[in-house]
Amino acid sequence: MRSRILFVAALYCLPTTVALPQSRPTAGNSAASVQVITKTINDCENNTDKFVRSLRRAMSRSSLNGTAREDELSRLTKDLEKSMDRVGRSWNRDKDLSKTRNHVRDAISAARNIDVTMKARRFDSGVENDWREVRAQLNLLARAFKMSSIPW
Question: Whole-prediction pTM value?
Answer without folding.
Answer: 0.77
